[in-house]
Each structure stands twice: as structure tokens, then as C-alpha cells.
User: Fold this.
Amino acid sequence: MKILLIGASGCFGTEFRNIVKSSNIKLKYYSSKKLDILNFDFLEKKIKKLKPNILINSSALVGINQCEVNYENAFSINSVGALNLAKICSKLNIILVQTSTHAVFDGNQSRSYNENDKPKPNNVYSGTKFLSEIFVSSICKKYYILRFPTLYGQRQNKLLGFVDKVIIALKKNQTLKIASDKIDSPTYARDAAKALIDIIKKKKSFGIYHLSNNGKISYLKFVNELKKLLKSKSKIISVKDNHFKSLGFKPLRTSMKSKKVKLRNWKLALTDYINKN
Assistant:
């Protein structure tokens, strides 16, 4: 099995590379900057030369504010890039794995979202990621679309996520304001990477998969658990999510679960991550 990974320096890409080291999978990987998914001709030539069985597209422009401001880049990287890869993979009979996000849901239902729930994107980021799903599922016969919640884990790049920033602040015993009404399924990227390898090796049915640690939790309770694990002296102040200004609509409840795969509980995963780091 030969896999080509694009977007290898982010959280999921980094943890996927770490997992593959202990397997018999042949992996070739590039950061988004090193392999331009918008240059169709160059991209097609490169993929033909590498001849992967599976291509994982983990490149993305993420973040609500960043995408609202740089909406042209967001559509290019998140949507057009996926379109290019879908065309090439379909033509070359390559399995395409496209990463996506829980942000494609509007957060208006109380229960966790599963693969059968209908996406309702409501900002540039979620819209561009949902469009990538449409391109891939419409063009490719052999594909996996992976939706992730908030991820944490090792990363090669310096683009810190929510959990990274919180850990840094907690280690410095800084006061934090955290939303009590923001509900998520924070997930260890290493667990998500293991789940993808299992899906691939077992040749599970093509389609959409929600890869998240089991359970849902408010950001406030999650950060308090982190504080306990890190033995931090930080003061945690409870606020509402609208305390944090946003340039686009922010869904409040985007916890996820899967009807197809099951990952371990979020608390077990978080404890494991902290103990390893």
C-alpha cells in the first residue's frame, strides 16, 4: 500500500505520519506549501509519478475569521484544491481521502451529529469545506470523507489550535475566559489517524465518516479537566461564547458521533495525550 499525504505538517497530518512509522505502509508526504494543489497540471504530473494507491488531502485554510477575511484563498484552497484532486484521483483510479469538519453543521440540534445528519454551513470556512465534500463525493467513486471536531496533538507547523493555546496558558498559570455554552467532542488527532488506518486496512465502505473521541463536553469543562491534569493554578472564568467576537456565524453545539466507527472516550484520550507530552 502506497499513500500520498498532502497537508502533512498540520495536527492530523503530523500524527498520521507518527502512526505510519510503525506500520508497513509506504508513505510519501508534503506540506501544503511544498505541493500546490491549485496547479492542476503540475499536480497531475506529480501524482502520476508517485503512483499512490491512496491520496489523503489534509490541506486547508482553517478558522472562521481567517476565512471570512481571506475568502478567495479559502475557496481556492478548501474547495478548488479538493476539486482538482477529485478529478485527478477519479481519472487515475486512486482512493481519495478528503478531510472535513464538524463546522459544516449549524449547531442547532441538541444531540451529537452523526453521518446521516444534513450539513448546513453558515460561514465561509464551513461553506468551502462542505463544497469540498460535494466535489469529492460527486466526482469520485472511491473516496472517504472524514469529518473532524476540534483536534489536538503534535504538529509540525506553528499554527496553534484552541487546545494548544489553552495548554500554553495553563502551564503559565494564566487566567482564562472559557465558553460554557460551546459544546464539542475534542479529539486526539492520533486516535483519528489510527481510525483512518483501520478504515483503509479493513477496506471499509466508501463514504462519510465522523472521527471523534466518544462523548461531548463544554469547552469550560474540558479546560477544567486540562487544568486538573496539568496541575495548573490558572483561574478559569466562565463566559458565553458570544463574548468572543467573530467575523462569521459560529455554531455552538457541534459535538459528533459515528454510526460506523467508535473511538475511545475523550477523557481517556486527553489523559493519554497529556501523559505522553
